[in-house]
Amino acid sequence: MKQGLTIIIFLSGLWMFTSCSSKKDAGPQQRVSTVTEEESKEAKKLLQGVWVDQDTEEVSFRAIGDTIFYPDTISQPTYFKIVGDSLMLSSVGAKYAIVKQAEHLFWFKNQNGDVVKLVKSDDPALALNFVRSKAQVLTYTEVVKTDSVTFYEGNRYHWYLAINPTKYKVHVTTYNDDGVQMDNVYYDNIMHISLFKGAQKLFSSDFRKQQYQQIPPDFLSNAILSNMEYTRTDASGIHFVATVCVPDGASCYKVENVISFDGKLSTILVEN
Predict the structure, then answer these.
(1) How far apart are CA 121 and CA 124, in angstroms?
(2) pTM above 0.90, yes or no
(3) Measuring CA to CA, which residue among 262, 260, 194 is closest to residue 228?
(4) What CA–CA distance (Å, rounded) separates 228 from 255?
């Protein structure tokens, strides 16, 4: 009996020792995992200036303070920082491994793993590529109105079309020639169509991209309603085609809007 009690006491002590040792060992590991590397101010200082591609001599970007600016007219400036051996762009959540960095040299890997080799330029004329502080938007900047008269079976129909620019932003992620991710911003449009038969109003409504459920949702979220135009009049009614496109890209959907002679609207996807 005494021997059994001795064994139990010995095992209990051994368990307590092992448990305490595990806790002590786990403590430093837990504290280390919460430590984050600080931003390198020296590396950020080295990146200041205009950088061009070492091979093509095309302008890639300009770093001023904590912001990177791009030479094209639609790419948004982005806040950046250098932590450890990585360039981090906050607006797009991108991270690029730095291969080499010196006063006039900056090499990094793009999202494809290719090494982009940049050199700093001392040519003051290149600063003219960055005179903009905001990205220009390739959409309508003012209301555009058109109207016309069409006839069918002796009846006269007068239609009005207005393209209204809005402040609804659409962010589109693209990659420049160096493979760097950029966040471009555009503004969506609202179209308005009114249709009259003599003095009688048959139809009047706004059109937004969201109503075109025939278009895949993922595409629609990155697209704008870029145009609306009258195409023809036939037995089914008066036809207008809406164009929904991803800005600065080749992808578009066209949706036909048909307003019947009793003022009812129907839509059909005609092409993409």
Answers:
(1) 8
(2) no
(3) 194
(4) 9
